[in-house]
Write a structure and sequence with these properties.
Layout lengths: L3 E4 L4 E5 L10 H7 L4 E5 L17 H14 L5 E6 L1 H12 L4 E7 L8 H16 L1 H8 L13 H13 L2 H12 L5 H7 L3 E6 L7 H7 L6 E6 L5 H4 L1 H15 L2
Parallel strand pairs: 2-3, 2-4, 4-5, 5-6, 6-7
Antiparallel strand pairs: 1-3
Helix pairs in contact: 2-3, 4-5, 4-7
Bound molecules: D-malate (MLT).
The site of D-malate (MLT) has 6 residues, from loops.
């Protein structure tokens, strides 16, 4: 069973963290939103306090099944499912497998599109490098996820993100990289959902191809797209703005 943090009562929102992160990243959002909603933040396999032992490859659909197990355990049969980056890929896989349980979908700095060939190659290299020298991998890769102009002033947030990465297991990291590499195009999941959807993108996000995603989202119903002046790490770079977007979107779409 995956580790989870559960707070509040009411309509349920699930938050899934990204690669190298854990459920702590949602603490600010969980504390604020749990005054009105039930907020569940889950540690994905190999990350945070969930078991360090994982499969060789953690496919997005396998992680989605484990998320569903948590919801079954809590006897929750309807959720707004959301996630940051890799967590968004898992949220999409969840919406594909358990559409009947989804009353809304949120993507923070994530995409419906699969990896291209270059990215697929980089995933395998990263899986090799991280096992050999994890500290160096985190030190070099994590600051790049922040908008360049935010790096000098967000040193303590960068340290926090590096600390989270150190909580992940090396097998979990490698399995997540291989799983992300295999993920399929889930544009149709969004297109066919028929429920409220939000997407938050970062103007300076190097990890996501925003313009391709926006093109693919043309004509999708009940979709709100918000752009922030951040890199890939809105929850740390602009928490207040992300919270305000969430609160507004929730108020507009659910009574
Ligand atoms: C993440 O933040 O979860 C990853 O950067 C996602 C990715 O590499 O595609």
């Amino acid at each position: 069973m995956l580790y989870y943090r559960d707070k509040g009562k009411g309509k349920t929102i699930v938050f899934l963290h990204g690669f190298l992160e854990n459920s702590r990243m949602w603490r600010f959002f969980q504390n604020k939103l749990s005054k009105k909603y039930r907020v569940i933040a889950i540690d994905l396999p190999g990350h945070g306090r969930s078991s360090k032992k994982t499969n060789e490859v953690n496919r997005m659909e396998d992680m989605a099944k484990k998320v569903n197990k948590v919801l079954e355990h809590l006897k929750i049969d309807e959720v707004i499912i959301s996630g940051h980056s890799m967590g968004g890929y898992v949220a999409l896989a969840f919406a594909e497998q358990y559409k009947y349980k989804v009353s809304g979908l949120g993507l923070f700095y994530s995409t419906t599109l699969p990896d291209d060939d270059i990215k697929k190659e980089q995933r395998l290299k990263a899986a090799e490098v991280v096992v050999k020298n994890p500290k160096e991998f985190f030190r070099l890769s994590i600051p790049n996820l922040f908008a360049p102009q935010n790096v000098p002033k967000l040193q303590s947030e960068i340290k926090t993100a590096i600390k989270w990465a150190k909580h992940a297991s090396l097998t979990g990291i490698s399995a997540a990289l291989k799983g992300m590499r295999l993920r399929k195009d889930r544009t149709d999941v969004v297109r066919d959902l028929g429920k409220p959807i939000f997407i938050i993108i970062g103007k300076y996000d190097n990890a996501i191809k925003n313009s391709e995603l926006i093109k693919k989202m043309e004509g999708v119903k009940k979709l709100s797209i918000y752009e922030l002046e951040t890199g890939h790490m809105g929850a740390l770079e602009a928490p207040e703005e992300c919270l305000e977007i969430l609160q507004t979107w929730l108020k507009q779409n659910y009574k």
